Amino acid sequence: MTKTPLKLLLVEDSEDDAMLLLRELNKGNYQIEWQRVDNAVDLQLALSSNDWDIVITDHNMPGFDSTAAIQLTRKNGFDIPIIIVSGTIGEDIAIESMKSGAHDYVLKSNYARLLPAITRELGEAQSRKARREAEEAILHMAYHDSLTGLMNRNQFENRLAHLYKCSQCENSIHSLLYLDLDQFKIVNDTCGHAAGDKLLKQLAVLMESKIRGNDVIARLGGDEFGVLLENCPLDKARKIANSFCDLINNFHFHWQQKVFTIGVSIGLVIIDKYSDGIENLLSYADLACYAAKEQGRNCIQVYQEATDEFIKRRGEMNWAGKIDQALEHNQFCLFRQSIVPLQKKTNSDKHYELLIRMRDNDGKIINPDSFIPAAERYHRMRDIDHWVISTAFEKLSENKNQQLNFISINLSGQSLGDETLFDFVSQHLKKSGISPEIICFEITETAAIDNFDIAIEFIQRIKLLGCKFALDDFGSGLSSFSYLKSLPVDYLKIDGLFVKNIIKDPIDKTIVEAINSVAHKAGIKTIAEYVESVEIQQCLLEIGVDYAQGYAIDKPCLFIE
Description:
The chain folds into three domains: 4-141, Rossmann fold (3-Layer(aba) Sandwich); 153-305, Alpha-Beta Plaits; 318-558, TIM Barrel, CATH 3.20.20. 47% of the residues lie in helices and 22% in strands. The protein has 21 helices and 25 strands. Strands 15, 16, 17, 18, 19, 20, 21, 22, 23, 24 and 25 form an eleven-stranded mixed sheet that branches. Strands 2-1-3-6-7 form a five-stranded parallel sheet, with helices on both faces. Helix 2 runs parallel beside helix 3 (66-75) and helix 7 (184-191) packs antiparallel against helix 8. The longest helix has 30 residues, at 114-143. The radius of gyration is 36 Å and the shape is elongated.
């Protein structure tokens, strides 16, 4: 039988007693590696030079005893089982030894207890080690991102709070960088989340290796990172930010014979005595990062509070809070606008597009132009779309006596990329009991193109439920016609930018004619938006457009009272 290795440090002044003890230990299932010492100097050297499994010490030695041996072992921070083996030891001494760190004591006249005591204490030591490692792992998880191993957002904010306090008390200057990867979505969409995760882990190692000793880097969520630069004024922070841009821009990610290059947009905020609170610092850095993306990506933007751009973005940030409040307190409402057929003698068909509005605290109606940009910027569109779908289906279920040809419901690009959207629609459709044939979902041409494969799959699945689909704002893309072959839509809504000038601009009229002709060849019906005059409506009728929508036909009103 294979014996278990055991590293034994024996504190014993008598060589004969040491041999007797080792003879007893050899009866057990241990392969022993041992060293004997009998004074403090040799014990310290032995503790420093090897990793021992157990310490066995005599109690009485000239100028050195078990109490000193225990203290020295514990002083070095070692969690090693310590057993006292002595010829004589009083009960009081034994109790004090146990209090000071000994785990057991065995009389030399009763060696039969030694092997069971060693086995027990080795097991206890292993349990303590496992428990300590588990606690360290839990502590690490509490402070670090599980994917990259970098500091997580909560701990990063704690560190940010510390630097902010230092800036106020010591008049020191620090810098905050907010990094958002460019083109990361391409890797995820092309190769899947496993590839995206690997890219993030490789970049995390690369970026962490480049920060200074006192600086910290954290993953703030998704493909966003934060860097805190301690005692770092603006000029130096710009150089460091530029070095991150160069580092990431030169990084090449390899995955299954594919090579990807990405970039990064960076927002930079100074932390000094003029900073107006830690709650705003991350928001300002985020705003600056967003401004960097709008400049063309792979660049750096310093937050400057007084500029028009940042005033606008701060306004959007305030709207994000109002959106959350509106969702929580049911302050959204649905309006409708008629979509009428042009090629029939009667306009008895009831077609409507649902339009979302918000009520403020005084009950005043707020148009979507005020809050949708913020909803898109701060990722609230999924929640808004879910609210619209569930509310529309509920109201239609309560008013089944209304004869409707179809109700058009807008979906955002953010919702289109949500894997749970189809199940959400399917479940609420089934729960409502309404006919799926009266539901027509709309997505913009831009959203469809940006999420092309996802859009095709989603449209196909929705149509299998019996719902219809419309492509909104058609004509705004650079390759609009080529996508019509692949997108299985029922309706095509011609971009209102072309429709509203159709009487005055012959080019716009030609574009509308072309879109209408190609759509009909593809078996798709057309809807013209922004019909703001009778003259426009008549022109569309002559062109052969199927439906019209706009203020000349009907102004939005409350959907169902």
